[in-house]
Specification:
This protein has 335 residues and is an all-alpha fold. It folds into three domains: 36 residues, no CATH class; 139 residues, no CATH class; 156 residues, no CATH class. 80% of the residues lie in helices and 0% in strands. Helix 6 packs parallel to helix 8 and helix 9 runs parallel beside helix 11. It starts with a helix and ends in a 7-residue tail after the last helix. The N terminus and C terminus are likely disordered.
């Protein structure tokens, strides 16, 4: 490296040097290590450890009840859960919601709320369906999500909400014939897009605490994953899933345009490319199956060879496309 390249100011300049071919791959890795933000990684490690500890603690509470269920009296069940709920809520206030610890305690309160609802249903045999539990859980924890100023809390709440919608659709709407499974998949796939749009709007209005890339990526994965299954079902000859296939294409196009032109984000484009690549592999497999009958072993070998070649071609094309996108989408504006 020359003297002018020895101490780049930031990672964006290192990427520019690499794209221009001014530095080798090994020099690039060394420069990246020099540009590493120690304070950022320290904050990341502390938050990761906090999340890991909280998850283990809450999982321990749930498994404690599951293992000792028969031996605990109703008073003990309610007393322990309500004590945990109150203590976690008070701890969230004492630690302040502006801190990661306070936000973690408020998430714990949301978890205790769900477990308490489940215990109420078990003790009093309310006969409520699973969707009613999750619907009540969604409503009761919404105020805490609103005041939490935590993207992790909002993601937890969104997961509960999507679970409630999915269970209601499966246990009521689909069971009674009001919805088809494809239509339910479309609803559960479009809802994360609605939440994503709300997130982007709130971020524009100044909610900087929502500025977490993983939150955006998680919502995109939820949406694409839910819409992917009816799209694949249509490819494998289920004509009733055509609406799901169409919606998958429309959502893919909308996300691609948004995160390429409006809010450039390479990670979102990579997720979209992965789903589209797998769908393209499935379409190729279907066409090969329609073209070649697999009655004999020779035809089977030829079909598998063609399928392998098609998948390799799709993968190569996806990698080259991502390289092109990485050059077009500046790392400076990625989140």
């Amino acid at each position: 490296m020359t003297d002018s390249q020895a101490a780049p100011a930031n990672l964006a300049e290192v990427n520019e040097l690499r794209h221009a071919g001014e530095i080798t791959a090994s020099q690039y890795l060394g420069a990246v290590r020099q540009c590493r933000d120690s304070d950022y990684w320290h904050r990341w490690a502390m938050r990761a450890l906090l999340v890991l500890g909280a998850v283990h603690l809450l999982a321990g509470v749930i498994f404690f009840f599951a293992y000792n269920w028969d031996e605990l009296s109703s008073f003990s069940k309610f007393g322990l859960l309500q004590s945990g709920l109150v203590l976690s809520f008070v701890a969230a206030i004492v630690l302040r919601l502006e801190t990661v610890s306070g936000q973690g305690m408020l998430i714990a309160s949301s978890v205790f709320t769900g477990v308490l609802l489940a215990v109420i249903g078990q003790v009093y045999q309310t006969g409520a369906d699973a969707w009613e539990l999750f619907a009540a859980w969604t409503v009761l924890t919404l105020p805490w999500a609103l005041v939490s100023k935590s993207s992790a809390h909002w993601m937890f709440w969104i997961v509960i909400c999507l679970t409630a919608v999915s269970l209601y659709g499966a246990q009521v709407m689909v069971a009674l014939g009001h919805l088809e499974p494809t239509e339910l998949a479309i609803v559960t796939g479009v809802l994360p897009i609605v939440f994503l749009a709300c997130r982007e709007a709130a971020l524009r209005l100044g909610a900087e605490w929502l500025d977490d890339g993983w939150f955006r990526r998680g919502l995109v994965v939820f949406a694409m994953g839910s819409l992917f299954f009816p799209a694949i079902a249509f490819v494998f000859s289920n004509d009733s899933d055509l609406p799901g296939f169409v919606v998958f294409l429309l959502v893919t196009a909308a996300l691609a345009y948004t995160y390429m032109q409006v809010l450039p984000d390479f990670s979102i484009l990579a997720i979209i490319t992965a789903f589209v690549t797998v769908l393209g592999m499935a379409i190729g497999g279907r066409l090969i199956h329609e073209t070649i009958s697999f009655d004999g072993s020779g035809q089977l070998v030829v079909g598998l060879f063609l399928l392998g070649g098609w998948c390799a071609a799709m993968t190569t094309g996806a990698v080259r496309f991502l390289r092109y996108l990485h050059k077009e989408v500046s790392p400076e504006v990625q989140q």
